[in-house]
Amino acid sequence: MANLSILQLNSRDDGFSDSLQALLERSHEQVEGVETVVADIISNVRSRGDQALLEYTNRFDRMDVTEAETLELSPERLQQAVECISDEQRQALDFSIARVRDFHQRQYGESWTYTDETGTLLGQQVTPLDRVGLYVPGGKAAYPSTVVMTAIPAQVAGVGETIMVVPTPDGEINELVLAAAALSGVDRVFTVGGAQAIAALAYGTETIPAVDKIVGPGNAYVATAKRRVFGKVGIDMVAGPSEIVVLCDGSAGADVDPEWIAMDLFSQAEHDELAQSILITTSASFAGDVLAAIEKLLPGMEREQIIREALQGQGAIIVVSDLDEAIDTSNRIAPEHLELIVDEPLLIAKRIRHAGAIFMGAHTNEVLGDYCAGPNHTLPTSGTARFSSPLGTYDFQKRSSLIMCTPESASQLGKTASVMARSEFLTAHARSAEYRIKD
Asked: What domains are there in the chain, each with its CATH number?
């Protein structure tokens, strides 16, 4: 097979900034026609319920289902999956679940109140969502890890009911995904996916109940559907293809095997052809070593063609002048995953303003975060780390403000409220406050 052609940029070259911007925009392009297709699917599922859901499932997943009830898997079927996986797989799931639960318990938001100087009680009441939908991809790969990362924070938050949807193309069911659902405490599981599953969760059908919020990653159709139903339901984020930036300073060539870096880049590129893997380094010679390692290792990868297309279409090796420029470039990209393979990574991390998750040091590869480190692997993509956060327990909780006045504090606060309301020409507002003002 021909040598890999991956974009190579140097910050010293004219037009570097424009070339970097073009690279970032390339990864954000949407599949043509997605919006129209998704709009039609949502409309049909919303109006025709189970019948439309069955038609789309049979068409897109090459199924032959006639009764919507058969799309739901029983608790006994989920438990059967637990019993059929290997001891090694069971131990891995248990270990991952325990670590993810421990981390997310630390995010739990508590209600609080205080009484201010006027005697008014103020505070915030934190309550869990009633019902959430968990979308677990099931196309090019199976993701039991996504079950854990979505179900456990919901469970920690105290969500009343979790509804999981997962596509099963050609009727192929991944036992590890089902086992993860059982061990993570998922309440109900339906074998549907795509935009039709998002529509069902948002609006409900005769078989699938409507939820309050939908979380979990998916392809362009799933992401577009989540965007369209937002407002009817909450969503965690509109996730795009997976991304990684590996940032190495000048010492990396001496301290780190280039093959480690190549494989870290592969770890995201193998998700799909639109995934983005970028190396930023201050050492041109190290960049060359990593490129050589990529050429050496790529032919031995099971997903060689997917990795090759991702690296050639979205990937890059960027050489910068110094560590400051490397940090600035990373902040401009705002990657989903950022590996800091530098001296004093804890110190450098304080200068990272935009990243979904930061992996510090040569021994902290991103893959650990995917499965068992503890923090969530559902992360902001496509530069949205500038304003978004990883999925967490807080995403399954909502907050209500608490206010309780005494007669005295109602009078004191009412005087200010009256002045402000009348300045806005809202007379009823003002009089409502004034009724409670004491002379």
From this structure: 7-22+241-386 (3.40.50.1980), 49-237 (3.40.50.1980), 405-434 (no CATH)
